Amino acid sequence: MNTMTLWDISPWGFAALAAAALLVGFSKTAVSGANTVSLAIFAAVLPARASTGVLLPILIVGDVLAVLTYRRHAHWPTLWRLFPAVAAGVVVGTLFLVWADDAVVRTSIGAILLLMAAVTVWRRRHAEREDEPDAVTTRAGRIKARSYGVLGGFTTMVANAGGPVMSMYLLSAGFRKLGFLGTSAFFFLIVNVSKVPFSAGLGLIDGRSLLLDAALAVFVLPGAAIGRWAVDRINQRLFEQLVIAATVVGALQLLLR
To answer: How far apart are CA 19 and CA 84, in angstroms?
Structure first.
């Protein structure tokens, strides 16, 4: 990518990126899916394709902090069932990025996120409320995990927007708050680290983008601390409503830009 544009950021532009980095930290430790707002801010300040390469290391910093905070609450059976499908989605997303322009990427991701939010709301109103995470061991659970896994891998590769898709999956699988955060923390740390070679190969990450990341990473730390403080004060129902609302807002931002 032409990273010369990264040095032309105005003070207000940098302040917006710093606020987005803080929101990344908050979303990783409190309301997963809220970082779709960060995605929109990065894409507004930086060239759309370049912004995905700059945002990825910031997300990894947030993932590390989330793993350190919620590592005891991860549900590994769910993770092992998701990873093969996610890997397939990442490959498809990489091929998609080779030919798709920014408008196609934004429209596709926004439509997928709105569909996932609608399906999740419908399921939670018409299905049994307290499904256990172990439901992924059933045939229907495996099919659902693979479907969401492919979509999650695809969306996280093309726009760093896999968070809302996986949030919808974990909510639909009946995860409670801490299990949700612990499972998603490990999931995104592993997936985002695995995306680095693909992003570098596409020219989305280089030395100059990493310098900007180094300047922004410090803002992830207070965001994560605020999120950890807030999550103990958010009840389960409000937590789920915030996750779904963040997904819808992020999807609309992508569609309306």
So the answer is: 34
The answer to whether the beta carbons of residues 27 and 35 sit under 8 Å apart is yes
- Max Cα-Cα span within the chain: 53
**Distance in angstroms (rounded) separating the CA atoms of residues 155 and 184:** 15
DSSP annotation of 136 reads G
Looking at residue 42, the DSSP 8-state letter turns out to be: H
- Residue 185, amino acid: A
Confidence (pTM)? 0.76
Q: How deeply is 75 buried, as exposed, middle or buried, from its count of CB atoms within 10 A (0-12, 13-18, 19+)?
A: buried
pLDDT per residue as tens digits for the range 232-251:
787 767 776 777 787 787 67
How far apart, in whole angstroms, are the C-alpha atoms of residue 86 and residue 221? Answer: 28
Residue identified by tokens 């190969």 is 201
Going from the C-alpha of 219 to that of each of 135, 184, 209, the distances in angstroms are 38, 21, 16
**Rounded to 5 degrees, what are φ and ψ at 197?**
-60, -35
Which parts of the chain register pLDDT below 50? Answer: 1-5, 128-131, 134
The pLDDT score that the predictor gives to residue 130 is: 46
Q: How far apart are CA 30 and CA 161, in angstroms?
A: 17
User: Residue 198 corresponds to which tokens in the numbers above?
Assistant: 């693909």
Instruction: Output the CA–CA distances (angstroms, integers) from residue 77 to 66, 83, 127, 145, in the order listed.
Output: 19, 11, 22, 11
158/98 Cα distance (integer angstroms): 10
* Residue 174 Ramachandran class (φ > 0 left, ψ -120 to 50 alpha, else beta): left
Q: Are 219 and 198 in contact (CB under 8 A)?
A: no
